[in-house]
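TA notes, week 10

Several of you asked for a full example with nothing omitted. So below is the full record: structure tokens for the whole chain, then the designed sequence directly under it. When grading your own attempts, check the secondary structure regions first.
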């Protein structure tokens, strides 16, 4: 029994060595292909793939490519084409019809630009600044006697907008991720609750800050600040190429 077990283990080890050797050989061949000269790779093409390359070159030239541009575009495909040719996968199966591949090269699909967190944060914060500016302006317009302990000063407006901007940007980014990568609703709600608590603590603390440090504006001042913030946001989004909505 023990001898049979040793024989089986020995056979399994030998098979593993054979498999490892084959994988190493494949990797060596693949490295040679991807480091080879394009002209050498063209010589290795099968008749079927050579015909594909010939037709692809013709379609690219007909679509406005210069001869050297068409050659460069096709040369970039050759390593992948030869690599898959060895596996028995011809170019028409790898890339689809020649006309389709030609269109993919002539009109490549641009990957959507990812907006960095800081840019989304500024964008959303400016939007909140404009919204809060309007709100504070309405409050100032409808209040007959200003409250000396009011926390609706300019510093409050700036910091509160930044807080809401960070919180909503984080939430939006989580919602844009694939479902499998999103945090659970419990964690998400927990973060939102903690963020809101920080805001309430901040607002409570601002009541103790004198108006000399946190000066409130009059209604017209808040409305002007809101318009300026929205204008700055519009220019910022255009400069950064931001097309995402701030809220879902």
């Amino acid at each position: 029994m023990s001898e049979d077990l040793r024989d089986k283990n020995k056979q399994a080890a030998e098979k593993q060595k054979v498999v490892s050797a084959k994988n190493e050989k494949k990797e060596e061949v693949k490295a040679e292909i991807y480091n080879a000269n394009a002209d050498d790779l063209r010589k290795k093409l099968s008749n079927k793939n050579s015909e594909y390359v010939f037709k692809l070159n013709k379609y690219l030239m007909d679509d406005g490519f210069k001869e050297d541009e068409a050659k460069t575009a096709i040369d970039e495909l050759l390593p992948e084409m030869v690599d898959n040719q060895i596996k028995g996968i011809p170019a028409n199966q790898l890339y689809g019809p020649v006309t389709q591949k030609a269109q993919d090269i002539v009109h490549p699909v641009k990957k959507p630009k990812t907006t960095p967190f800081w840019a989304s944060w500024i964008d959303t914060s400016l939007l909140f600044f404009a919204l809060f500016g309007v709100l504070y302006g309405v409050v100032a317009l409808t209040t007959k006697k200003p409250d000396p302990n009011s926390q609706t000063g300019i510093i409050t407006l700036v910091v509160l907008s930044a807080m809401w901007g960070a919180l909503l940007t984080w939430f939006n980014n989580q919602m844009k991720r694939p479902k499998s990568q999103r945090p659970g609703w419990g964690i998400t709600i927990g973060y939102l609750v903690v963020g809101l608590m920080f805001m309430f603590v901040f607002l409570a603390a601002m009541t103790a800050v004198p108006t000399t440090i946190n000066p409130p504006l009059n209604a017209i001042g808040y409305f002007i600040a809101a318009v300026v913030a929205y204008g700055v946001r519009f220019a910022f989004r255009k400069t950064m190429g931001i097309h995402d909505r701030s809220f879902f």
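The chain has a mean pLDDT of 82. Use that as a sanity check on your answer.
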